[in-house]
Amino acid sequence: MDLGLVGKAALVAGATEGIGRATAQVLAGEGARIFAIARRAEGLQALQEEIGCGWAAADLTDTAAIDAAVKAACDHFGVAPDILVVSAGAAQGGLFWDIDDQTWADAMNLKFMGTVRLLRAVAPRMAKAGRGRIVVIVGNNGKQPSARMAPGSAANAACLAVISALAEELAPLGISVNALNPGPTRTNRWDVLIDRLAHTEGRPRAEVEAECLATMPRGRIGEPQEMARLAAVLASDLADMITGTSLTADGGATRALA
What we know:
The structure is a single chain. By secondary structure, the chain is of the alpha/beta class. It has helices spanning 18-29, 41-51, 63-77, 101-129, 150-170, 188-201, 205-214, 224-234; strands spanning 9-13, 33-38, 54-57, 83-86, 133-137, 176-182, 246-249. Strands 3-2-1-4-5-6-7 form a seven-stranded parallel beta sheet, with helices on both faces. It is globular. The mean pLDDT is 93.
């Protein structure tokens, strides 16, 4: 099916790793023009060599850097972005009463406020242009909190609230805002989580991972490209009537009616 993305101007934040990188690759494969934002210039240069994108290095905790990167993207495209995909950060977890203030602050500053900063920089430009598709990669623990991932769950839930509110603001202008909520996905974050659990429990890594996978209804976790394809659909006009909501993609791990 043709997603109608040929020539679309797509700004992808968090584009050098995991789902963000996969989404940049999928959108480029669909014919979109890509401008990538991430912290590390080396990763952005590698992505440019692969898909021919424009890029700017920016830390999502720095408002001025984000504003400059978004302006650079608009200059690169010559227009406001048609598409914004935000794949921002992860949070540390642990036993609730062992999590210090800085861990909570870091989770909110990167994942939640990083998303807010990007939305605040891009939404007015889309509003002025009268078009746009915004997709935020959030995470299923925003709707189904995890006991040992409370900071990330809280940041994700806050992101979902902002997405719903902004969607109401932008819907009359024909601009959609949605979340994609992946479950566990085979990214560097998954590897770090398994390594940490194996170290904490003093067990072989393969044993810990096999135990985690056994809890998944499909016996496996998601792949970045699977999530990226869903993000591309949400970023296309095929999803025009979907806004202010979230799509959970976790192979049935989340038990809910909606």
